Amino acid sequence: MSEARVGLVIEDDQDIRELVRVVLSQAGFDVHVASTGSAGVTSARELNPDVITLDLGLPDIDGFEVARQIRKSSDAYIIMLTARAEELDTLMGLEAGGDDYLTKPFRPRELRARVEAMMRRPRASSESRSVAEEVDPEVSHNGLAVSAGSRTAVLNGTELKLTRTEFDLLLALLETGRIVRTKADLARRLRNEPYDVGSYVSDADERAVEVHMGNLRKKLGDSIQAPRWLETVRGVGYRLAPASSN
């Protein structure tokens, strides 16, 4: 029998905390809760959860800083829950390490759908990495070596610390090469859907892809003007940069 999936709810509002706990429990998670940011950071480090819901308006540490601290030790999916409707807050949350967000009030069904879509995406354990290294060859492009099976990206001998969302976007571009993928295509990929199913993608979903791609560029040390890996096709989307001759 596989181990139970672990969920962590970091939320100071008792009613919302209980609602999210129930939603995750019904989705099959062993759920733990924290009512402060500091407690949430500690729990994330000790529990190694698969998914975390994180309120941005916590009483002690704001959610942005909580996300940054969690990212130092955890690759859990982080869904930001916020009553703030301003786009800037949402983008700051994604830049701090969040994978997705929902604005309060939200529908429990929507939260569960977002979580289940995330959990359909693979997460490599140390054991699966060692097995994958034997059967999954690395794909190299301009000095960047990426393994889909072990979910690692190595540049100049150093493994990049990518979030799972950043890795999935990088892998999507490596898989399709010079074919341009729109932001809607990539948003569907993050939902584990085919590129062309035609499901609705909101402006906010596309903007989230832009932020994640920006974060990925920073970690790669890539240049928008002279890209080695991520090429922006203005008004369309993204594709893999050409292979260098070096």
Description:
This protein folds into 2 domains: 5-119, 3-Layer(aba) Sandwich (Rossmann fold); 126-240, Winged helix-like DNA-binding domain superfamily/Winged helix DNA-binding domain (Arc Repressor Mutant, subunit A). Helix content is 41%, strand content 20%. The protein is globular. The chain has 9 helices and 12 strands. Helix 2 packs parallel to helix 3. The chain has helices at 14-26, 37-47, 63-70, 87-95, 108-119, 126-135, 164-176, 183-190, 203-220, and strands at 5-10, 29-34, 51-55, 77-82, 100-103, 139-141, 144-147, 152-155, 158-159, 181-182, 230-233, 237-240. It has a 5-stranded parallel β-sheet with strand order 2-1-3-4-5, sandwiched between helices. The protein has a 4-stranded antiparallel β-sheet with strand order 6-7-8-9, covered by helices on one side. Strands 10-12-11 form a 3-stranded antiparallel β-sheet. The protein is an alpha/beta fold and 246 residues long. It starts with a strand and ends in a 6-residue tail after the last strand. The longest helix is centred in the last third of the chain and has 18 residues, at 203-220.
